[in-house]
Structures are given as C-alpha cells and as structure tokens.
Inverse folding.
DNA sequence: CAAAGCCATGTTTTCGAAAATCATACCGTT
DNA sequence: AACGGTATGATTTTCGAAAACATGGCTTTG
C-alpha cells in the first residue's frame, strides 16, 4: 500500500531548508524584505513565538543570521528589531551594489558560456511572461519577485566568484526592501521590461561597456525612485 | 573603600560583548583565524561545550553568526565545521578584497579629514613600535595582529560607507586566516614595514593612484606568498 | 522639590533535558 | 561476495523553564 499523505497533525513544519531554524530564517527574511514587518519594528520573542511557532532559541538563531545579512538590528541585552531604514543606508546599499554588480557583469560577460546565455534568456522570458499576465503591481506578485530576482541573479551567475555572489545577494535583498517601501506610494512603474530586455541583449552580445552602463542606470534610477516616493519614510528615522 | 577585584568565582564570563553568545562568537572567530581550529575540522558540540563552557544553543548562535561571515561551514542536520580552505577560495577572497579595498582607499583619500590623517599616522606608529620590539614572528604576536588590523582599518575608515566597511572587515578576517595558514612554513617575512610606510605616505599626501597601486600589490603579494608556502595545504582538500 | 536608590515588571538570554536525525555496523537474502 | 534493509549508537536540533537583565515607577533622602 502506498504511503498515505502526511496527516495535518504531522505535516512537516520545514518548508524551506532542512532545519526549522533555516526555515524561519527564510520566512523572516521574506517578510522583512516585503515590509510585512516594518523597519525599526521591535521583534519580541513572544510575538515571533506565536507567529512562527518556534521556541526562543530557534528564533534567536534565525535573528542572528539575519543580523549578519543586515536585515535585522541586534541590540545586545535589549533584543532585536527590524533594521531601520534611512537615506544614508539607501545610498550606501545602492553604491555598494553598483560597485559590485558592475564588476560581476563584466566578469560574467567575459566568462559566460552557452549555459549562461540560455539562463539569461530564459529567466528574462519567464519574467516577461509574468509581466504580460498581470502588469499591474509587480512587487505584489510573489512570482514576479522570484522571476525578477532570478533574472538579475542569472546575469552575474557566471562571474566565477561565489564569494562576491553571496555579498551581491545580501545587497540585493536589502535594496529590494527599499523598493517595497516605496511601492505603495509610487504612481506607476516605469518601463522596467524594456530595461531588462536591453540589459539582456547587451550581455548576450558581449557588449560589456553597454551592459555595465545599463545596469548602473537601472540600479541608480530605481534607488532614486525610492528616495523620491518614500522620502517621508526615510527622513523621520 | 574601593571595590574589590572580582572574585574568581564570580569573574565575568563575558570578556567581549555583553552577551555570552557575542563573547563566544568573538573567541571562536579569533581561534579560527589563528588556525587554532584547523580548516575543515568538525565543530562538535560536546567539544565546544567543554572548551567554551556554554550550552548547545548559545554555541549554535555563535556558529550561525560565523557561518554568515564565511569562517564556518554549516551543514544542515550534520553540524558545523571550520570553513575549508582552497586555492579557489583564496583567489576569490583576494580578488574581492582588491575590488573593495581599492575603492574604499580612493573614497577615504577623497573624504578623509584631519582626524583620519591622525588615525592613519598613529596606528602605523604603533605598528612600527611593536615590530621594533620583536621583529621575529609578527603573526604570533597578538598585539601585532591587532595593530596591523587597526592600521589597515584606519586607512579606509573615512570612506563613508559602513556597509562596505563591514564587508571589508569580513574579507580581511578570511584573508588573515590564510596568512596564518602559511605562517609556519614561510621562510621570512618580507619588508612589510616599508610597504606600510609607503602606503601611509601615499594616503596622507592624497596620492590616490599611488596608494591604490601599493595596496593592490600589498594584498596580492601576500596572497601569492600564501599560495606558495601553503600549497600543500591548499591542494589536498 | 530634585536626585538618587530600590523594587516590580516585562523582556531577553541561557541552560540542559528530550526529540529528531544521521552514520555505522549488523544481519539476512540473493 | 554483494546488496538492501534495519537496529543501534552518536550527534545535532529543538524546546520551555529558569536565570539574568533592562526599564520605569515609587520611595526615600538630602
């Protein structure tokens, strides 16, 4: 007889990662990036315990990991809180992203093979499909977010440095939180589809200088948008 | 009457940081960097528990933090181990350091004020004093290590980006571990004192191009040294 | 009345036992 | 002998109680 479906009572609690701690780290990260937990908000164990159904120490491990990524602020003996946002931090994250992403794009264009080209083309294709389906509020759509993340990830994936890719990933997450922050106040998304298309073409045709210029513009204009439309959230804290 | 010295029985267990977890993170980090714990060595809780006198969960939190810094390798459900070393990783860390440190030196030279100049000059002075006192095995001397770290830190401290400084600090630690790895097999330290002096002068005289070139050479030649004299440790794993 | 000290309360932090998981050796079968 | 599956011991992971700590209000004192 076939193994029955897992009973609700023994449904696995770990949907991502093998350990509960890794799972909670992942869920907390997504929630902070999406601003479901507001910047600066205290992260009290009682509340988290109820929300995530894990114990003190497991939560503590997750919060410690997120603190290292810059999404959580650990105040020794006084608990944790969601990392605050500020204009200064936005500028720093943007600057760091440009510095690193530009270098990684160059390396990827230099080193990328057929598989890399295929990855770039196919992740962009998926992204465009999702945008066609529902062109309204991309950041509200989890699928769009994943596809967008994967497209940018694929662009640099052939750079050859896992070390720099890890740093880039952390910075990308921190920047994405700022995008969410301003999403509710932004009048209309600009033509991101066109920008992504142009970046893809520059990369595939191995035009490094153009790709670098497009990426830098892409990153900086997004950050400018955030600074404009989330201004009231950046100056008060 | 003056407060008596803390009794041995109630001697504080936290010498660094306010929490035990932060203290253990710090001690473990130093021990891994100094190769007191060998690369790839499993980090079993029984052993750590005895060595650091903390409980499972506290150790777990410390290991999680160090995993985010790249000094510990977390294998889900199969424990932790000291991050392995490899030629590839050495190259990546060196490359990343050059990319970031070069940029930060430029920014610091651009933005540094009088306090910055004073910090650079005085940290170099302390470093030279320590080298005069005991010119034998600098990496064996904890004071030299701290002074060396602080000199390089001071050079970039005025860059204006806490975000990039944090990334730089992690990479510096990872590189320092490789230096320790080869220290036992290196015949003689080359003229680091002269290099540090030249870097300081280029920085203070605001000669960014020269400072950048010197720093890059400094970082790369150190890494080359490691690759040469720790070759037998890098190829086997 | 101001300032300092002290207790009460809520929160974080730490601990070791207990549950879950993995690695290994053993056994039976082919 | 080789293979697959299972029991066993070792190790990690998780939990909630208990200790440590910070904060704010209250009392006492100068």
């Amino acid at each position: 007889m076939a193994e029955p479906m897992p009973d609700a009572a023994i449904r696995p609690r770990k949907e991502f990662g093998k350990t509960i701690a890794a799972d909670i780290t992942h869920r907390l990260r997504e929630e902070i990036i999406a601003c479901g937990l507001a910047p600066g908000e205290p992260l009290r164990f009682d509340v988290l315990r109820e929300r995530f159904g894990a114990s003190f120490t497991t939560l503590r491990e997750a919060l410690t990991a997120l603190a290292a990524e810059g999404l959580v602020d650990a105040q020794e003996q006084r608990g944790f809180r969601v990392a605050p946002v500020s204009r200064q931090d936005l500028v720093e994250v943007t600057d760091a992203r440009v510095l690193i992403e530009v270098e990684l794009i160059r390396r990827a264009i230099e080193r990328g093979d057929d598989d890399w080209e295929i990855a770039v083309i196919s992740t962009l294709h998926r992204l465009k499909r999702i945008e066609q389906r529902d062109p309204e509020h991309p950041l509200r759509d989890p699928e769009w977010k994943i596809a967008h993340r994967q497209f940018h990830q694929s662009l640099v994936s052939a750079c050859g440095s896992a070390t720099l890719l890890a740093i880039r990933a952390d910075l990308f997450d921190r920047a994405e939180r700022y995008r969410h922050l301003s999403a509710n106040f932004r009048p209309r998304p600009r033509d991101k589809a066109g920008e992504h298309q142009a970046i893809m073409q520059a990369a595939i045709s191995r035009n490094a200088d153009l790709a670098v210029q497009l990426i830098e513009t892409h990153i900086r204009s997004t950050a400018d948008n955030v600074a404009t439309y989330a201004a009231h959230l950046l100056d008060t804290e």
